[in-house]
Amino acid sequence: MKNIYSLVLSAALLGVSEQAIAQEILSDSAKTARAQEDPKELANPSVVGMGRSKGLVVRYEMLPRFGLHSEGKREDIGNAEADVRRNNKFEIKAYAPVINRPHFKMVVGVSYFLEEFNFKQPEGLEYPLYKQLQDKDLRSLDGQVIMLKPFNEKNYLLLRVKGELNGDYGKYSNISFDKYLRTSVEAIFGWKKSPLFSYGFGAQFGYTFGRRSIYPAVLYNRTFNDRWGIESIFPANLTVRRNLSEKSLLFAGYKVEGASYNVTVSPPFMNNETVELRKSEIRARLRWEREIYDFIWFGVEGGYRYNHRFNVHNGNDPNSDPIIETHIKDAGFVQFDLFLVPPKRFLKQ
């Protein structure tokens, strides 16, 4: 019973990326299964020093005032500019291992994400895109399955399948899967060289760079000593880790974030009822994680956001050119999260 309880609590979440969460949870599952059934450790992507896994995370992020300028790429769509007074994001995630066998492990995750735009003068907004962003929040409700297949003590396969409902929908009863569903797949074949070094190569098919595309993925996790390490799935993210103590970790690096949302617009702005908003950004970030009490931790993150894409496309043609190109001024950001990790007494079982 204690092993089952500890396995459920091991499913906690995030620092660097969703892939990193999966690595931590699958590694904890591997340790539990190995102690029970297999005297040798089968290959997995995590390395010593990555920290205790996270199973539940509540996160809030705030971006201060910034400007944006939109250019219509059709004659019937004009240009506009406005100031965003505040851009807030809220997210809650949970992960739990459901299969924990020596030669196969599976983690199931769910999350809810909400992003709101508060314009400086909302009553004076005439541009339909700005009015829609002010009136309705961008939302994402997703579920995913992460699978780890160790082949032996040196090789493994990491696979993630994810489905998201992305858009500016309000009531969940009105969600259309045809309009809002986005899917992505990631697969990495890896080598575990030692408890301190794991690497792999694969591909990601998703929306990290705004539009749905295939791009390479290079996993590189390495701990150099008891203080320094690197955690990366390039080009999506790269993080240098500094282990300050067992209760405190510091991270620095960059991360690419992107998504595609179905957004409602009012005629005669568009012939369609909905369009596709593709957004992506590159973040330089510094993060600190600290234990509050045993299984309760908090994280503080800050940095600088560079906007790469915030464009509107015809939702019926994924290969279409942008209808609107929006240029957003770069800005700083600050993020706070609270998360749960397995209690120390279970790690010593």
Tell me briefly what this model is.
By secondary structure, the chain is mostly beta strands. The protein has helices spanning 2-9, 18-37, 128-135, 177-180, 344-347; strands spanning 56-63, 66-72, 80-101, 104-119, 138-150, 155-167, 181-194, 197-206, 213-223, 228-234, 237-245, 248-264, 274-293, 296-314, 324-328, 331-340. Residues 1-22 form the signal peptide.
Largest sheet properties: 16 strands, antiparallel
- Relevant CATH superfamily: monomeric porin ompg
Q: What is the strand tally?
A: 16
CATH class: Mainly Beta
Structural class: mainly beta
Shape: globular
Measured by DSSP, the beta-strand proportion falls in over 45%
Termini separation comes to 12 Å
Number of helices: 5
Average residue pLDDT? 84
Domain count: 1
Describe what this molecule looks like in 3D.
This protein is mainly beta and 349 residues long. It has five helices and 16 strands. The protein has a 16-stranded antiparallel β-sheet that branches. Mean pLDDT is 84; it is low at 1-17 and 29-39.
